[in-house]
Amino acid sequence: MLILVFALAGGRNVCAADNLQSFVTQLFASKGGGVILSISRTRRIMAVVNPQLAIKEAHRPGSTAKIVTSAAVLDGGTADPDPIVSSEHFELEYPLSQQTWVKRTLETLERWRRELGTNAETLPSRVRVETFNTTEGFVRATGEPGWMAASSDGFSISLQPLALLARKQILDQTLRHELTHLVVHRVRVKGVPRWFEEGCVLYLTRERIDAPTNEQTSTVELEAAVAKPGSEAQMRAAYAQALERVRRFAQRQGDAALWRALMHPDPGDLHWFQE
Which CATH number does the domain 84-183 belong to among 3.40.190.80, 1.10.390.10, 3.30.70.2740, 3.40.50.10840? Predict the structure, then answer.
């Protein structure tokens, strides 16, 4: 099976899109694989062969395929890129339908980055952020369910349409949450469970979760529910329990102990994670 994802340098020597699509189709269609051909500078997708297969294989662990490439291919083959605007520490790609919220998004991210203080030093010099026209576009690009507001992978942030988040009055909260996730995820060491990361993010961003916390589950069940919730209700219940556990930890040992436990957990921490 042949799976190829090319990035061209661009410039005058790049073939016209129609000619290039025809050439690539003839060259690779009989190979039984998939091809995505794009210009690296502008990320314009020039040609696609067997898009569903190409994207499925390109998103295996270790792949360099980009979310924007996948979304554009599935939305209709070749496509011009969305606009990109940058601030000091962030690069935001957005469809024109979301332009009203771009300035607020970048300002909120920069402000929260400053509030994170020295902990933000673990972030890349410029964090890539992307938003979409529709919830369907977000779902296709990230693989997350439609009730998730955003997604992060330790390097970048993907957001539901900014207008949708603003209408739900959760835009600023979502931006703070996902940026804190980037920081916490990058310092969390092996052996520290994901539920502790999620609880720390919720605690540090001072979020409230409207879900019962009196239902006790094992840490194994909690880890599974946080990592891959089956529904929004299950996610909120798991987040509420993770937050409550982290809150009790901070009350006993102080907020600074949260960062220590993320980066340098001692035997007592590791035992508590499994209780």
Answer: 1.10.390.10
Collapsed DSSP state (helix, strand, coil) of residue 5: strand
pLDDT on residue 109: 97
| Rg (alpha carbons) of the chain, rounded to whole number | 21
- Evaluate whether 216 touches 188 at the Cβ level (below 8 Å): no
Mean pLDDT (whole number) for 43-54: 59
C-alpha 66/C-alpha 123 separation (Å) is 19
CA neighbours within 13 Å on the CB side: how many for 53?
Answer: 13
Q: How many CB atoms lie within 10 A of CB 258?
A: 19
Mean pLDDT of 192-208: 95
List Cβ<8 Å contacts ≥24 apart for 81-87.
81/42, 81/43, 81/44, 86/126
Structural domain boundaries of the chain? 3-66, 84-183, 188-273
Report, as an integer, the average pLDDT of 226-232: 91
Q: Is 182 within 8 Å of 225 (Cβ atoms)?
A: no
